[in-house]
Input
Amino acid sequence: MQGNRLYEGQKLALKYFTVAIVLFGAQLLFGLIAAIQYLYPSFLFNTLDFSIARMVHINALVVWLLYAMIGAVYWLLPDEAGVEVVGVKLGTLAFYVLTVAVAIVVLVYIFIQVGPGNEMTLWFITEGREYIEAPRWADIGIVAVVLVFLYNVYATVLKGKHSGILVVLMADLIALAGLYLAGMFYTDNIAVDQYWWWWVVHLWVEATWEVYVAAVGGYILIKTLNANRQVVEMWLWIEVAMMFGSGILGLGHHYFWIGTPEYWWEIGALFSALEPVPLVGLFVHVLYDWGKERGKGNNIKNVPAFAWLTVETFGNFLGAGVWGFMHTLPQINLYTHGTQWPAAHGHLAFFGAYVAIMISAIYLGVQGKAGFKEMKMTKAGWWAISLITVGVLLMTVSLTLSAYVQTMVERGMHGATWEGYFIAQANQWFVQGMGWRLAAGLSVIAGYAFLVYDLLTVTKKQPAEVMEGEAAAQAA
Amino acid sequence: MEYYLQDIPHTDFLHIFVVSAMIIIFGMGYAAFFTVVKMKLLNRYFMIAAYLSWTIQAACMYYLGVLLRVEPYTQKVLIGAMVGYLIFPHIVYFVLDKVHRRYEHEAEINQI
Output
């Protein structure tokens, strides 16, 4: 950002952020539909079945996070490199191609839903692989768009300054883009197929995305708290060392039923529990440094972004760390696999690790667009962060209670039989947990409404001293 | 090395989930007390609370191993992880201290 003037790359970032927030709404809406269908199975039966609502819910999550991630990189890239993004026009073209492709895929999911089990379905409707269901034409399109994005990042950094944050991002984005290829081919053997599918799903989420959020989190800490760059970069390298270690070795905790030696399960469980440690370390360290200098004019430069980053740090620890460890050890996972335990862990971990930090990055974009040097939290902003965070925590606890009943009744008492499955589903404690999950979902939806309102109005509702300060700065 | 997981009685499930959550929470307690004492925000005697948290965490880990009926190899891995966790904050603090000394020293040189 040059004064109040944005780089072209940052204007492109704002486009990505806008689509991301819209898709976030779609994710919540379809999650709500799926939650209702859990309690009332006839709801939208044969119109929008549970399998489709769940698929759109999950895919919208993955895609909006990718949009926000690309947007955040385009936002920080020219700022860190000190030069305009190379190939902005190409990047803009890629943005529109991706958005049209996503719109077509979503419409096909909603209106066509299923096809015959042949190549046509794989190419044009859905690949049917959880989390990465996009049809093959869209897969190829995603790879093309990501290649444009990678070119822009590399060409810009090579032309400008090479900060530690950018170097980590460059290495990480290669892995993030390359791993997607592992989910684009089929093998006849389902165990081998699952093995490669995990390479995308796990290594994306638990290695490349974690390193990515650490880099973006470091940048946000520099922007909001004026964090020392050397401290941030030192933690980033610890993150890289641990994340690629813990991310890759942590992969082992998924290797059930595919014939790998059992020691992989133990190794996977222990290393995956270590993943959130560096991010918490970075945050605490920077906060401590900031606290030492507090009261000397070093105000938080963007309170909403900082608040969401705080939620991210501790949400990541609780969701990925505590809830992850509670069900990831193989001796436990043998019973909890496929129950509501992974759902409880997944909701809090995704929210804590990725959703909150992307909202934080979007607030940074809103501040930059308005050209404010400082931005305070509004009432709507507080309602948004409170309703969404409390809603997700309540959702996690509700799912955990249902999961406990489900695991004990279905797996422990009835030996994972179909009969056990249905007995557990009908258990009153299980059903009550699902009811509370739905109530929590409504809280999140209400929080989303406040969030959208706040993003649109936050710069107009800044306190008088911030507005006056900006006017004085501009006059000078 | 091949072995097979032992069946776990369903009456142990609740203990397993609670004790595994305790491992992370006391682990956080160890890291938190250690950090706060090193930051000099708390008296250094509170380091006792840090090591007490680690001890409870290690005991919880041992109890979890018992509940899960783990094999000898896993027992060694779990205990190794606890010893590693005991050492880890000391290494991190050492690295942080080095970094601070370096950049604060650089800042002094720049001021001169």
Remarks:
- Chain B has a mean pLDDT of 84.
